[in-house]
Design a protein that fits this description.
Distance between the termini of chain B: 85 Å
Main location (chain A): cytoplasm
Strand content of chain B: 15-25%
Number of domains of chain B: 4
Order of helices and strands of chain A: HEHEEHEEHEHHEE
Distance between the termini of chain A: 37 Å
Family (chain A): Belongs to the VPS25 family.
Strand order of the largest sheet of chain A: 1-5-4
Structural class of chain A: alpha+beta
CATH architecture of the largest domain in chain A: Orthogonal Bundle
CATH class of the largest domain in chain B: Mainly Beta
CATH architecture of the largest domain in chain B: Roll
Order of helices and strands of chain B: EEEEEEEEEHHHHHHHEHHEEHEHHEE
Helix content of chain A: 40-55%
Keywords (chain A): Cytoplasm, Protein transport, Transport
Largest sheet of chain A: 3 strands, antiparallel
Largest interface: A-B, 17 and 15 residues
Strand content of chain A: 15-25%
Number of helices of chain B: 12
CATH class of the largest domain in chain A: Mainly Alpha
Oligomer: heterodimer
Radius of gyration of chain B: 30 Å
Largest sheet of chain B: 9 strands, antiparallel
Number of domains of chain A: 2
Subcellular location (chain A): Cytoplasm
Radius of gyration of chain A: 19 Å
Helix content of chain B: 40-55%
Organism (chain A): Albula goreensis
């Protein structure tokens, strides 16, 4: 399935940070949604600012426009404010990108668990993300840190409890 | 001062009085003359001065003796003056109040004003040279230097060198006076040109309809390059606010047509060039122009000085509406897809600077957005809505 670019992607001004405040807000909103949907399409969980500049999202070779590093940082900062991104270092060169927030992932997992009548059962984290049962589910292949965060979110809601086992971590759903 | 001769104050045959002015004091060069305040009379042939109280005390100088003259503006505690440079004294001169003077010029100091009119009349007389056409009964002493030639002796030693230096100095003096003579002739010609432009302007008005539009435009451009009639100058309108107000009024008159031709807006630099080309001689300083533009508003003239965020100053018509300007910018950009300020300038026949200001304004209002790439700054319709 090929990624469907939004119309803005072929609009040259999209790649220049707009000085007009209102215009810039709309532009940034479009960038946020493009970044998230692209990462989701490619199942990306971490991004490097320098590498990102060369990725097709921020570099449209067809119209020969690329977003500057400063502008990318502005977009990422905007994503951080919305809770979709976390910086991994102080210099803000690498970041975790969460195209679904942990609560949303948790909700998806819990829906699957209850749909299959497996409430009160115990799973290992590996089973959830890479087990045969979850194949075809959206959270299949989810990176462990992300999975852990989603389960932690469920735990605070009182729907799950994370247990430490000999060879790693497990979870029990309520 | 030693050029003056005693006179009875009566006019000769063929001589007519041009103007007289009370409260005039004479200066021998830079020093006050040992005469009181009096009346200065200008006739077609002579410059006459008469003591205010003692009418017997009356001296005159033939106008032919004048090389050139200039105005000296008034200062704090100082009256306006006219400086008159004179030819060397002729040996056949009749007696006057001064036997010798180290100065070759005199000054008329106007205690009770009137120097502008006096100066104007003097200029007229000096150019018309009526004393040449109708000589008075007695021949006026002139300064053609035959006598000087006769008196020339061979000298050696220091005296010889001194004499040579003196001759050289006289030569230089003569050259300078000749040079200035040319300048005053130029001014006279400038006046004639103004007259000519006036007559052309009135002819255009009379014949409206008879001549084609092309010809009208051509005439108009001639007029513009020739100059405007009666430029407002510091001399005629003093200094400070009053001067700027008069200037603003004149600018208002002359800028209306060019502004309309250019779509209601002109950069101040462009205005500066246009105005000074039209004025020809009495050039405006940039500062005076800005100050004059600043009082447009106070005088309720249909013009405005506008300063853009970038600091660029323009003169625009008051009727010039911003919304219209922005709308037209948006229309143009939408039609072409995208425009740089250069392309927009070409499209509207504006300067690039102004075109850019318009685009930036439209961007500020959220109608346009920019694409800043290596190819330059382009403006697109704002599709981020």
């Amino acid at each position: 399935m090929s990624f469907e670019w939004p119309w803005q992607y072929n609009f040259p001004p999209f790649f220049t940070l707009q000085p007009n405040v209102d215009t810039r807000q709309k532009q940034l909103a479009a960038w946020c949604s493009l970044t998230l949907s692209y990462c989701r399409h490619r199942k990306l969980y971490t991004l490097d600012v320098m590498e990102a500049q060369e990725s097709p999202v921020f570099n449209n070779k067809k119209i020969e426009r690329k977003l500057s590093v400063e502008a990318i940082q502005v977009v990422f900062e905007e994503l951080r404010k919305k809770g979709n991104l976390e910086w991994m270092d102080k210099n803000k060169t690498r970041c975790l990108i969460m195209w679904r927030r942990p609560e949303e992932w948790g909700k998806l997992i819990y829906q699957w668990v209850s749909r299959n009548g497996m409430v009160n059962s115990v799973f290992t984290l590996y089973e959830l993300s890479n087990g045969d049962d979850t194949e075809g589910e959206e959270f299949h292949g989810l990176e462990e840190w992300m999975l852990l965060r989603s389960l932690q979110a469920l735990q605070t809601e009182g729907k799950a409890e994370i247990i430490t086992m000999d060879d790693g971590k497990g979870v029990k759903f309520f | 001062m030693d050029r003056f001769v005693w006179t009875n104050g009566l006019l000769e045959m063929n001589e007519t009085l041009v103007i007289q002015q009370r409260g005039v004091r004479l200066y021998d060069g830079d020093e006050k003359a040992k005469l009181d305040v009096g009346v200065s009379l200008l006739s077609t042939h002579r410059l006459i001065w008469r003591d205010a109280k003692n009418h017997e005390c009356c001296i005159a100088i033939p106008l032919s003796q004048i090389i050139f003259f200039e105005e000296q503006a008034a200062g704090i505690g100082k009256s306006a003056k006219i400086v008159i440079h004179l030819h060397p004294v002729s040996p056949s001169k009749e007696p006057g109040p001064y036997q010798h003077s180290k100065f070759s010029y005199i000054k008329l100091s106007f205690k009770e004003h009137g120097q502008i009119e006096f100066y104007r009349r003097l200029t007229e007389e000096m150019t018309q040279k009526r004393w040449e056409r109708t000589p008075v009964s007695q021949p006026m002493p002139t300064t053609t230097g035959g006598s000087q030639q006769a008196g020339r002796t061979r000298a050696v030693g220091i005296v010889g060198i001194e004499r040579k230096l003196e001759e050289k100095r006289k030569e230089t003096d003569k050259n300078i006076s000749e040079a200035f003579e040319d300048l005053s002739k130029l001014m006279v010609k400038a006046k004639e040109m103004v007259e000519l432009s006036k007559s052309i302007a009135s002819k255009i008005k009379e014949k409206q309809g008879d001549i084609t539009e092309d010809e009208t435009i051509r005439f108009k451009s001639y007029l513009l390059s020739m100059g405007i009639a009666n430029p407002v100058t510091r001399e005629t309108h003093g200094s400070g606010t009053h001067y700027h107000m008069q200037l603003a009024k004149q600018l208002g008159d002359m800028l209306l047509a060019p502004l309309e031709e250019r779509g209601g807006m002109m950069a101040l630099t462009e205005v500066y060039c246009l105005v000074n080309r039209a004025r020809g001689m009495e050039l405006l300083s940039p500062e005076d122009l800005v100050n004059a533009c600043k009082v447009f508003d106070a005088l309720k003239l249909p013009l405005r000085l506008r300063i853009f965020d970038s600091g660029v100053m323009v003169v625009q018509l008051q009727s010039h509406s911003e919304e219209e300007m922005i709308a037209s910018a948006l229309d143009n950009v939408s039609e072409k897809g995208s425009l740089t300020s250069e392309e927009f300038a070409k499209l509207l026949g504006l300067s690039v600077l102004l075109a850019k200001e318009r685009l930036l304004l439209a961007e500020k209002m959220g109608h346009l957005c920019r694409d800043d790439s290596v190819e330059g700054l382009r403006f697109y319709p704002n599709l981020f809505q």
